[in-house]
Design brief:
- The protein is mainly alpha-helical and 69 residues long.
- The chain has a single domain, classed as 434 Repressor (Amino-terminal Domain).
- Helix content is 57%, strand content 0%.
- The protein contains 5 helices and no strands.
- It is globular and about 35 Å long.
- The mean pLDDT is 88.
Length: 69
């Protein structure tokens, strides 16, 4: 599963979860322009510090922490 995930673009995964660039930037706590710069890149091509921040969100791991689900 991780192999196919890393070959998808940030834009594809962001749209899958229904996130705008602004919403993703707020969750990751970076500027909106940083997300726009990497939007067309594949996950494996994103710089490592930013990749570690966005991967759990785009994979859906952050939804596991919601207490009412």
């Amino acid at each position: 599963m991780a192999f196919f995930f890393r070959n998808k673009t940030v834009n594809e995964l962001r749209k899958k979860w229904g996130l705008t660039t602004r919403e993703l930037a707020q969750r990751v706590k970076v500027d909106n322009i940083e997300i726009l710069k990497i939007d067309k890149l594949k996950i494996k091509e994103v710089p490592e510090p930013l990749q570690r921040k966005i991967t759990p969100i785009l994979r859906g791991d952050d939804l596991d922490k919601i207490p009412w689900l």
